[in-house]
Amino acid sequence: MSRPFNFAPGPATLPQEVLEQAAAEMLDWRGTGMSVMEMSHRGAAFTEIAETALRDLRELLQVPAHMRVLLMQGGAIAENAIVPLNLSRGTVADYVVTGAWSKKSHAEARKYCEARLAASTEDSGFTTLPVADQWRLSHQASYVHLCSNETVHGVQWPALPDVRALGGAAPLAVDCSSDIGSRAIDWSQVGVAYAGAQKNLGPSGVTVVIVREDLLGHALPSCPSAFDYKIVADNDSMYNTPPTYAIYIMGLVLQWMKRQSYKGLHGLAAIEQRNQDKAHLLYEVIDASDLYINRVQAHCRSLMNVPFFLSRDELNPVFLAEAQARDLLQLKGHKSVGGMRASLYNAMPLEGVQSLVSFMKDFATRHG
Ligand SMILES: *Cc1c(COP(=O)(O)O)cnc(C)c1O
Q: What are the pocket residues of ligand 1 if the criterion is a CB atom closer than 6 Å to any ligand atom?
């Protein structure tokens, strides 16, 4: 069965192998006589599913031993509150604003602490990253928040910034919802990293939180118990009933990730290289044509979300209709920026991007 290519920003395309395995196991998970959805979250079968998923996530992302991996609910938007509730101690936190998502994180944090703007690229229309002399880090900050990949504006940190070199001392709090699992992470300065699963890791409903053990246990008294990292950690992410089916699908995605190979590379290294190749193909076509525009500076263009505009606005509906007719789905840009956006998460095959760029070249020839 051949399915269309789905470029949605999230919830996003999932590997076909994963969907097929989930379908095959739907009524009876490995002889238990139950669907995963029907199992007790404390029973032996689900415990094995959850423990395997956590082990695979740790292995793939090389999470250091002094960090805990928590499975929570509420998505990254809830974490925008949960992070200051757990880490700020009601004092100062620094926010780096590089697009719509980090701007939202900063606004939410103000309810819980003195959330300062340490740097912003809003003046550029979110087309770049702050340079060293634009940073204003607070020496008393409890953490420095940033978004590693801005899903709406298509701006990605090529690597996490070295906060110490910029005069800071606090650990990073990173919203990596739209690039977790797309490349290796340097954990050395990270205090907490969080991500909703529905971009790169699975379906919506489960939120991955990777937090340094020494930061647990300092939540504000008003923090809901279900959102207190220490309580969640002490209960192995089962303080409240976890989103069991979403965790199961995420586990299948992680196993699929471990099986990947590409150009002689395996696992996350293969995925990372393939993501670079996919994004390169698309940016090359955008830059080669006067019809397509992407204004993000080359060094911080996102490998995951590629927003682009047509130089002639009246062609937008034609582009989308023709793309759809060629089985290229969900390319419409975010409502706040308009134009188009192609999301190229791990599960988007190289063939999907090849099909998109061949359509775009053809479209440019006919309409350019
Ligand atoms: C999608 C996304 C969010 C929102 O996630 P929810 O699961 O809806 O809370 C936040 N931040 C980034 C970077 C995202 O890509």
A: 10, 75-77, 101, 147, 151, 175, 177-178, 196, 199
Q: Which of 29, 94, 101, 332 is catalytic?
A: 101
pTM of the shown model: 0.98
**Structure token digits, residue 189:** 């300065």
The count of other CB atoms within 10 Å of the CB of residue 293 is 14
Q: What is the pLDDT of residue 132?
A: 87
Q: Which amino acid is at 230?
A: K
Pair type for strands 67-72 and 207-212 = antiparallel
- pLDDT tens for each residue of 28-40: 999 999 999 999 9
What pLDDT is attached to residue 181? 98
Q: Collect contacts of 237-242 with beta carbons under 8 A, ≥24 apart.
A: 237/50, 237/70, 237/71, 237/72, 238/41, 238/42, 240/73, 241/41, 242/41, 242/50, 242/71, 242/73, 242/206
Read off the tokens for 278: 């996919």
72, 73, 77, best to mutate for ligand 1 pocket (most atoms within 8 Å of CB): 77
Contact 305, 147 (CB under 8 A): no
Catalytic residue among 56, 94, 103, 175: 175
Query: Would you call 70 helix, strand, or coil by DSSP?
Result: strand
Mutate to test the pocket of ligand 1, among 95, 177, 334 (most ligand atoms within 8 A of CB): 177
Alpha-carbon gap, residue 203 to 195, rounded angstroms: 12
Mean pLDDT score of the chain, rounded to an integer? 97
Alpha-carbon span 155 to 304, nearest angstrom: 9
101 catalytically annotated: yes
Q: What is the pLDDT of residues 197-213, one digit of tens each?
A: 999 999 999 999 999 99
How far is Cα 351 from Cα 346, in angstroms, rounded to an integer? 12
